[in-house]
Give the backbone structure.
Amino acid sequence: MSNREDLPEDTPPVPLLSARDLVKAHGRTLALSGASVDLRAGEILAVTGTSGSGKSTLLHCLAGIVRPDEGTVTYAGERLDGLPEKRRSELRRTEFGVVFQFGQLIPELTAVDNVALPLLLAGASRADARAGAGEWLERFGVRGQAELRPGEMSGGQAQRVALARALVTGPRIVFADEPTGALDSLASEQVMTALIGTARESGTAVLLITHDAQVAAYADREIRLADGTVATAGVAA
Amino acid sequence: MSTRHILLGLLAGGPSHGYDLKRRHDERFPQARPLAYGQVYTTLQRLVRDGLAEVDGTDSDGGPERTTYRSTADGSRELALWAGEIAPPAPFVTNEIFAKVVVSILAGGDPEAYLRAQRAAHMERMRELTAVKTAKGTDLATVLSADYALNHLDADLRWMATTAARLTTLTAEVDTA
Amino acid sequence: MSAFLSDLRLAWLLTRGSDRREWWRVGLTAVGAALATGIGLGVVALLSLDGFYSVSFGSGLFDSPSDRRNVSLALGLLLIPVLGFLGQCARIGAVHRDRRLAALRLAGATPGQVRRIAALESGLACLAGSVVATTAVVALLPYATAWAGVVLVAAAVPVLGAVVSAVSLRRVVAEPLGRLRRVRPAHGPGPLFRTATKLLAATVAAIALTPVLGSPVSFGLGPVTVVVLAVLFSLIAIWLSGASSRQLGEGFAAGTGRPALLIAAERLREDPWSTARTHAAVLLVTVVGSGFAGVRQVLLAGLDQMRREGSLGTRMSYYTTGIDLTAAAILVALALVLTGLAVGTAESLATRRRGLAAQVAAGVPHAVLARALLLETALPLFPAIAVAGLGGTAISIWYGAAMSDHVAAPLPYTALLVPVGVYAACLLAAATSLPLLRRSVRPGELRYA
C-alpha cells in the first residue's frame, strides 16, 4: 500500500527501501500475501500486527535475508530480490544493521569483540575495531561490560550491546525484530531510547517490528499487518 | 483528584501566595491539566474556612499586593491522612469508549470503524507523549507523567484490540438484550 | 509389568514425536551396538575353539590357541573406540532429550520412571543393533558353538546400553530444572585421570628399569609395554589437547584481527575440555597407528631379511596376515573415531543453529563461519596429534633399536606419516558438516524465539 499522497512535500520521490506486492510462503502457510512497504531515508517505521501476521517474514524479505516468492524489494535503486546471497550478505553487513529479540551476539565473544566483529569483517585491524566498538559501548552506557560475555550481562545490557553491533558500521537502515521482546519495561525504555536517539542523530532509518504499542509509539509512522498484507497505515504528524 | 490536598501539599514547604502555588503546581505536574488561577483562589478560601490553612500576611514586592497563606496544624494532619489513604481502584467502570461501541451497535452504526479511528487517535497521542518523553533534557517528572499516560493508553489499546476481535458476539448480545 | 508397558508406551510416544536428531542418535547408537556385539561375538567364537584347528581362512593365524588369544585381545581392544563412538552418539540431541525428560519430571513423573524411560529408549536401540549383528555373525560363523557365550554377548550389549543411559541421566533426574540451563564444564581432567596417568608413568618407569634392577614381576618387553606406552601417550595427548586448547584460545584470541580465528579461539578458550574429550579417541588411534606403522616397517624388513637368509620358520603370509589384520583393525578404529568426530561437529552445529542463523542474517559470510568451524578442530588437534605422532615414532624407534641386534632395521619414517594422515582425515571429517552449516543456518531458524 502506498502512502505517497500522504507524505510531506519535502519527501524525496524515491524511498530508500521499497517493497511491492511481496508474497512468501513457509511450506503451506502463506506468511506474506501481497504486502507493500516504503521506508524513507532516516524514517522510523513501526510494523505491528498480531502473532503470525507476517511481521518477521516481512523484515526478512526487506533486509534481504530471504528472497520473496513474488514481488520486488528495491534498496537505493537496486533490486534486492534478484541479488545472489553473497551480495545480499555484503549489503546486510555494510548498509544494514539487524537487531533480534536475542541471539545475535556470539556467546563466546566478549561484548567489545561482538561489536568489533563487523569492523573486523570489513578489514579493520583488531586495535582499531576494538577502539571503535568501545566508543559505541560507551555511548550506550555498557562500557563497563566490555569484557563480559553475553551470558554474564542482563538482558537489557546484552540488547544494548546488540544495538552497538548493529550500528557500529554506520548503516543506513537498522532492522529491529522485537528488540525489546524479552525485556522488562525499564530496560525496554533504555534500549528504545538508545536506538531511536542514535538513529535520529545519525539519520539512520529504522524498521521496527513490534507487537507492543508503547514501542511502536517511538516510530514516526506505523503500518499494521494482518494476514500477510498491510491492513492500515498511519502517518506521523 | 483533590486540588485542596495538592495545594496543602505545596504549602507544606512554607507560606506561599496564590500565583506562586499555581506556577509550582504546573511545574510539579507536567502534562496535567494546568490549574486556573481562579480555582486556586477559591480553593484557598475554602481551606481557610475549614481551618486547614490561614493567612500568613501580605507582601507586595513592589508589584500588586499578594496574600500569602500557610498550612495549619489541622491542615498538616489532614494532608498526612489523605496522602496515606489508598486511591479507590476503579470504583465505577465509566468507559467512554465502551459506551460508544454499545451505543453504536444499538443505533446501527459502525463500531469497527469507530474502534479503528479511536486506535489511530490513541497511537497518535502515544507518539506525541513518547516524543515529549524522549526529547533532550526532559526532566524525570515529565518522563514519569508521560509514562503514566502511555501505560493507560496502552491498556485502552489492548482492550480495544480484544473488543474489536469479539464485536460479532457483542453485537449479537446487545441486539438480543 | 503394566508399569513397564506404560513406560514403554511413553518412551515410544516421546521418541516418535521427537525431532530428526533424536532419530540420528537412535540410529547411530544401534550401529555402535551392532559393532560392539559383532566384536564380542568374534571374541567368543575365537575363544570357544579348543586346541589346534585348521581354519580355512586367515593363513593359519586362527589355527593355534595362543594366536587366537592374541587376535581376540586385539579385537577386544577395538571395543575402546566403539565405546567412544557410542558415547559420542549419546550426545546427539542430548540437550533436547534432557529438556524433554526434565519436562516429564516437572509433569509429575517419578525419578525412577524417567530413568526407566530413558534406559528403555537407548536399550531398545542397542537391542536392535545387537539382534542384527547376532543374526549376521551366527549365519556367517559355523564355528560359533559356544551358544551360551553368544546369548550372553547379545543380551549384555542392550543391558549395558540401558544402564549407561540411566547413569548418565542422574543429574536430570535429580534436578528437573537443573539441566535446562546450559552449564559450562569449566573443570579440567578429574582425579581419576591424574591417578591413571601417574600409575601408567610408574609402570613405564618400572619397565624401563627392569634390566637394571631385575624385576619382581616379569614384564615381557613385548605387547604389554607397547599397550602401556600407547595408553600413557594418549592420556598425555588428551591433557595436552585440553590444556593447549585454552592456551591457544587465549593466545590467538588476544592478537588476531581475523574474524574466523577470533571466533574459533574464543570458543576454545570458553570450553577447552569439550573438544579434548572428543579428541581423546583420535589421539589414541594416532599413537597406536603411528607406533604400528613404524613397528610394521621394521618387522617386515626383518622378515624380508630372514626370508632371504632362509631362516623363516613358516610361510611369509602367516605373518603378513596378522599384520594386515591389525592394520585393518586400526583402520576400523580410525573410521569409527572419524565418524565420532564428524558427529560431534555436526551436533555442535545443530545446537548452535539459531545463533548461527542470526550471524548469517547480520551479514557474517558463510565462509567465515565455515573457517571458524574448521579451525575449532584444527587448532587444538595440531599439537596433540604432533605429540601423539612423536610418541608413536618413539615406540617404533625403540622397537627398531631392540631389533637391531637381529636385523638391519630401517628408519621407521612411516610412523611420522601416520599423524599427518590422521590430521588431514580429521579435517576432512570436520568438513563433512559444512553442508550442514549451509543447510542449518536458514532464516527459518529466526522465526521462533
